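Re: beginner question about structure tokens

> Can someone show what the tokenized structure looks like for a real chain? I only ever see the sequence side.

Sure, here's an example I had lying around. Input first:
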Amino acid sequence: SFWHYFAAGKRVAKRQSMWDAMFMGMRSMSRDESWIEYAIKMLLQVLINFSMGLIGAFFVFVFGLWSIVKSYQANPLSAAIFFIGATCAAFAFVSSYLFAIFGTAAG
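And the corresponding structure tokens:
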């Protein structure tokens, strides 16, 4: 289901952000970097990780959706309409979620 792929994308983003925070923290200890610079870099990295995780989850969902639509062996026209509608709905949700995250980060 879409929610399974969406949750998997968020888990990937959280895990990658945790690793990035650890390695960015070690790397910034050797440089003369202020706390604010580190926080801004970390925020941008988290935004990139969530974007990539959710966009990747969207594409995995779309490929999985096609196999589900084919398994029902429906009329080709109604199968195409359902596939396009479900893809548009998933894209709308992922894009609005990312828009909300970026809007919150922008202030």
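Each token stands for a local structural state, so reading them left to right follows the chain. The chain has a mean pLDDT of 88.
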